[in-house]
Amino acid sequence: MQRWLRMLLLIALLVPLAGQAAPASPAVAVHYGSKAPLSDLKVFDITVVEPDHGQDPVKFKQTTGSELFAYVSVAEVQASRPYYARIPAGWKLARNGAWNSEVIDQTAADWPAFFADQVVAPLWARGYRGFFLDTLDSYRLAARFDEAAQQQGLVRVIETLHSRFPGIRLIQNRGFDIVPRVKDKLFMVAAESLFKGWNATDKRYEDVKPADRDWLLGQLRTVRDTYGLPVLAIDYVAPQDRATSRETAEKIKALGFIPWVSDGDLQTVGIGAVELMPRRVLIVYYGAESPSINYSIAHRFLQMPLNHMGYVVDYADIGEALPQGVLRDRYAGIVVSFGGFIPDGSAPAVSRWLQARMDEGMPVAVMGSLGMVPDEALAGRLGIESSPEAARGTLRITRQHPMMGYETAPAPPVAPFAPVYLTPAAAAQAQPLIEVTDQRGKPGVAGALMPWGGFILDPYALVDVPGTEYFRWVIDPFAFLTRALSLPALPVPDVTTENGRRLFFSHVDGDGFPSRAELPGSPFAASVLLAEIFQKYRVPQTMSVIEAEISPNGLHPDLSPALEDIARRMFRLPHVEVASHTYSHPFLWDRNVKHGVFDDKGEAAINLSLPGYSMDLRREIVGSTEYINRRLAPAGKPVKILLWSGDTAPSAEALAITEDAGLLNLNGGDTSITRANPSITAIGAHGIQKQGRLQVYAPITNENIYTNLWRGPYYGYERVIESFEMTDKPRRIKPVDIYYHVYSTSKRAGLNALHKVYRWAQAQPLHPVFASEFIRKVRDFHTYAVARDGEGWRVRGDGELRTLRLPPALGVPAMGASQGVAGYAPGVEGPYVHLASGRAWLKTAAAAASPGSAETSRSPYLRDANARINGWTPQNASGQTAFDLKGFGPLEFALAGASGCQVQANGRALAPASASVSSSTSNYRLPDAAAHIQILCPVR
Fold first, then answer.
1. Exposure pattern of 612-645 as b/e (b: 16+ CB <10 Å)?
2. Which of 82, 520, 577, 763 is deepest in the core (most CB within 10 A)?
3. Is the pLDDT of residue 646 over 80?
4. 107: phi then psi, degrees, rounded to nearest 5
5. What's 370's DSSP letter?
């Protein structure tokens, strides 16, 4: 019975991955770091953690589906443990100097109860249900001991735990001699150092001696084959040596054991049964070059391409201490972005830091400037001449790579530009991006791909357009970053699309709510918005108000009854989501950042002027939300979002107040690409993180930009259609977001522009969502985990983001072998894969296996839909596929591979509205906004 129960528990862990391609055992990680990256570790089924670091195992399991096991030391205790002082001196058998711990005598009669009460019970109360039992063999460190008695004591500990905590799961580290006596009480057995070990005394990594390995291998095979227990083999390799870690994990896996290969202190994300693919890039910049990070070149221009390729960006300001622990377990590379020379006092530390990272094998891309004349050590590491002879005469471009000339052609080099000269050894391995030659015929470079990464120097990275605020890329940033950082082809978490269709929503800043419209009768602009837009276009809309503009205690107390009534009628509409646009509309959110009209000499107001009020972040955010919930929002429909006002550049403190109040946030980013400025430099990132708090950017900017700050032309917002089109092709970088202020409806031209934009959106094959849903997708993007898992990909998210974009090199999904995948649709940059939840296992096939081919048409799948999918049940033995769709209007969806099958919606037969030319795809329409779909196919 006990073994049967254990097998059921193992199967339960693997339910999300059940199927022919799923692994046979759970993927296990071990991480004892004080800041264990749980968002990455959720890609493993089980992670063993140091519980004193404060993790919440209940929340982790609820949000990720994976589990945390608590590390507990059975036979050793360190003085830092809270229960150390309560251990009688007579129980201390010996001392382990290597780990600075006391060895506990397992023969003490009261030790099992003490261990259960003082060690395990507090962790059980916190929600831990799995425990990693360590140091079982430590009694052997004592000068004298009774081995049989010590082992019997260990057995009593395990028996006591099973008696006291029903359902407890135990991973026992070694203790092979007692396994036969407790095998029915163990979930798994672990052992360290099968191939590679860590010498804790000498602090070095070592190969395991063949004799030791053979002995351990025999023990592990006995545990697995004789006692039927899974085996976890933990080996140790230097964290920068990913190749050896990967090779060691494969060796362990080939023996039929669960591998975990990590650093000697178990502080990094190692390689196990699956390998986490690093999705973070660190950008090193100089903060003093701009008023704040929001306005830096690094953030304005570099983050978006990295986000689009699936990477989360962290920043390191060289004006502060540069971070340690930037390793290949979580980081894909480092980008250096300086606009010029950094202070001489900072250069040596930056040089040493860069060399250390390069020595650890971290790819580095330099974009713009290295920020210094490299010292001899750095120059040697980069492969460039440290004291080259100056170029002579006029320089000319003699060769350039195809990735050059992306948005503008490279200009002939002029002073003060100086080329870089590669050493002969480096030149032999380099691929020049742009070569320049002086009058002597001596070639230098302005950029090259190097063994350590690559560099591109200004003015061949980015240039400004004279007389404007516009910029242009000289180099293709997507291609350069991919090549310089050696970024692999990965499934990309995509926030623009769901079920093959581009996302669409609308959100409105409350500015101008009390304005009188220039229309017959001079109605309030808000009243026009309600009648002309919200009641006419019943698509997801997010509406906000500024408390000071409409409340009885605000700027217009005499108008407040009428204005609040309009707001209430808006918020009662089922397709309108409730948001706050603050209390007094701050124009400057961070008073420590002086920029534009807010510089030291400026006298611009930082918020709307209210008698007796000084701007207070909590009042702006929490107070305005409470006002809306109390006076305007319907019961059960509270404020969900805080829409940033003014400069839309909140401080970390403002972001923390918003998040801690349970609010989402949106605005900023300033995406305004048009035919007048057709550059991806006018496309913003997904958002920005400050001290771990995320600001989510609006996908497209509002009408203020298109109407010259509302000075005209007032029909200018119709040009946002250009922005929508140019962020869809040649790359779909942004969803469609109709974003504007209430005052747009105060002028006929502005209102006409809105009608034109909404009608354009209605004519497109889009997927409507609320702004809050988009925000949650962006948040999911920042914590999404992608791992290589055998022949496929294991992905883990929060369930908000449901789309992966496949680079062409990966082909298309192999639907018959994948799990949690409902279908896919073609895209300009590769297929969009539709996920049924936040957990999936994806296998891809060659691109030749296109829709309609033998591989993909064995069972039906979803081609696209304008609604969210839930309850996806792939084709079963009876030929039935089922799923639910729920959207915001009449349903539209397409099925592929369903030829000869009957489709039912809510139990009634549904005929296709049309079929594609190839007849491999059938399109369906329903008047309902929700339906249960069944596909009944003949058994093939």
1. eeebebebbbbbbbbbbbeebbeeeeebbbbbbb
2. 577
3. yes
4. -85, -10
5. -
